[in-house]
Amino acid sequence: MGSEGKLTTGWLSHPSPGEEIFITGVSGSFPDSDSVFHLKDNLFNKVDLISGDYRRWKMSHPDIPQRTGKINNLDKFDASFFGITFKEAHSMDPMARIMMERTYEAIIDAGFNPKELRNTRTGVFFGVCHSESEKSWLYDKMHINAFGVIGCSRSMSANRISHWLGVTGPSYAVDTACSSSLYALEHAFKAIREGHCDSAIVGGSNLCLHPFISYQFSKLGVLSPDGRCKSFDNNANGYARSETVAVCFLQKAKDSRRKKKFEDTTIDTKV
């Protein structure tokens, strides 16, 4: 571990000045909310973001709750901007496409041009679990082109970002089911602390594209039949599935372009 200080928890919780790790940029797509600010406005205005429409599938089944949270514009992607070919873009998991867009926005939100990260020791850590478009591209439409295996590979969701940005830090996906993005954040934090990278891009994603996945969760007895979460309520009867693709950018305080803002605020935004 090196110095004796690294053998104590203080090494993680009490870094020296300038070594603190902050979330300096954030972006995301949320149910019927195209940005963090849009989500904030919807929540403050008590908008119900769980809908029972047929944007994802047209199937009526008593064991499949129709109400889910759905993000917008799954079919939109500027492939040429990200250096993705037309054929590859059409066989990529929608999560992977949106991850690239949100990564770009999170870096911009931190005050950086993505080109500035090239050849830097920036890690990419993504929390992903199911790829609900995988069956379509690997089995049902395998004759279309040869990009399905990399377009729906969960490990590639992180590697593709590293390749696009030209960064040299660790790059991998984390799958711990519902806690995947939380563990991705922990991996990123420790990687910076331990010197494996100087900054990190952390993302998490979930899309509800196939009714049979919801059917499986329903048969497990964990989904709410009416599609409503009632946390800490006596009437709680399960949870509602929802979609999100979100990315944040982690940096040491000394490298952040938000240092002045951090010094002036009284809100603790440290990881």
Automatic annotation (TrEMBL):
One of its GO terms (molecular function) is 3-oxoacyl-[acyl-carrier-protein] synthase activity. It comes from the Eukaryota. CDD domains: PKS. One of its GO terms (biological process) is fatty acid biosynthetic process. SMART domains: PKS_KS. Keywords: Transferase. Residues 18-271 form the Ketosynthase family 3 (KS3) domain. PANTHER family: FATTY ACID SYNTHASE (PTHR43775), FATTY ACID SYNTHASE 3 (PTHR43775:SF23). This is Ketosynthase family 3 (KS3) domain-containing protein.
